[in-house]
């Protein structure tokens, strides 16, 4: 079966944001893991499969034995990376991606599946069949990372949704460091961040401060 | 091993073109197969995996036992459709998609792999390892279907490339009915068309005339 996943500080990559700070995605991920990120989701919407696979192989080799590396959406990229021996942990699916039940049959019992959910019905569906390992609940605050994301649910809204599911839940969407104590108090198992690390001046330092805030030290 | 594939009249779908004629992709494919299309590649760049899988399932159920249904790019969609019992025949890959050698390991020996190739080096690579079942050579004529396609090679240029490979070759890219006799004489095993069917007033009739032209009757 799957190993447990520490969702505490879950980095979701955004290549354009990293590039706007003069860094590669790989550099950003390495710095964030050094700083304390506990897992990494590689996301490359609009990128061809070959380029995405190359990035997944490269970054998984760099950090995949330290923290779980999760592939966004492209189950075939996960399968190809695994076939080539890279330490990839699983796949994260959105509501409009391939269905969780079929993906579980394709990737077997050893790999993780995360699912984005934003409503009680989606959370109930995520629990069905036992195929899903965690849910990503959001958006916490309105964000520009995903143009099709719903308006922000707020810390309280995300917490209320998290209370509806027995699955480990990570909050996502426009999360700032000041949100972390509230999210943890509301029962979330972690916070997923994009711009708080990818757009940070120093992603290692940003990850360290976010992790500290999550662990209870509070923002500096 | 894989069954042989009749590449003679190879329809590649374009949803926007079908819609511009007031038809669904499914309606267009059914009409084209009724008219004589010998295989169908479903292409849905920019569509989410879930929607693309639904389309593949729907169209494969409708025509997949009459002609081979090939999935463009998304190996995971092929695998999911197969897992769900749909009669899908294989996948078509571009040069920037997942590598053929890895895809063969993921999909096994029963499914077809086609690869787009536009240069002698790409054709040589396609033959390596024996994983590829056919190549798509183009662009024959400059086309607006793919904005990143190279300038047209012409019938002679495509024929010269086809002569370099032992793999079955289908020409693609801006092909009109008058090109078919020349392409066949140049050693191609078939012609892949998009707009000649998707934008046709009557896709069944268009397919029938294209097939007749390919078989040697020449254009009406």
* Shape estimate of chain A: globular
Report the portion of residues of chain A in β strands: 15-25%
- Please tell me the overall pLDDT of chain A: 94
Helix content of chain A: 40-55%
Keywords (chains A, B): Magnesium, Metal-binding, Thiamine biosynthesis, Transferase
Cofactor (chains A, B): Mg(2+)
Protein name (chains A, B): Thiamine-phosphate synthase
Enzyme class (chains A, B): transferase
What would the keywords be for this entry?
220 residues, globular, homodimer
How would you describe this structure to a colleague?
2 copies of one chain form a homodimer. In chain A, α3 (49-63) links the parallel β2 (39-42) and β3 (69-72). Chain A has 220 residues and is of the alpha/beta class. The first copy, chain A, has helices at residues 15-20, 25-35, 49-63, 75-83, 100-107, 120-127, 154-162, 180-185, 195-198, 203-215; strands at residues 9-12, 39-42, 69-72, 90-93, 112-117, 134-138, 169-172, 190-193. Chain A binds chain B through residues 48-51, 53, 73-77, 79-80, 83-84, 94-99, 102-103, 105-106, and chain B through 48-51, 53, 73-77, 79-80, 83-84, 94-99, 102-103, 105-106.
What's this, in brief?
The structure is a homodimer of 220-residue chains. Chain A has helices at residues 15-20, 25-35, 49-63, 75-83, 100-107, 120-127, 154-162, 180-185, 195-198, 203-215, and strands at residues 9-12, 39-42, 69-72, 90-93, 112-117, 134-138, 169-172, 190-193.
Topology (elements, then pairings):
Two copies of one chain form a homodimer.
Chain A: E1 9-12, H1 15-20, H2 25-35, E2 39-42, H3 49-63, E3 69-72, H4 75-83, E4 90-93, H5 100-107, E5 112-117, H6 120-127, E6 134-138, H7 154-162, E7 169-172, H8 180-185, E8 190-193, H9 195-198, H10 203-215
Parallel strand pairs in A: 1-2, 1-8, 2-3, 3-4, 4-5, 5-6, 6-7, 7-8
Helix pairs in contact in A: 2-3, 2-10, 3-4
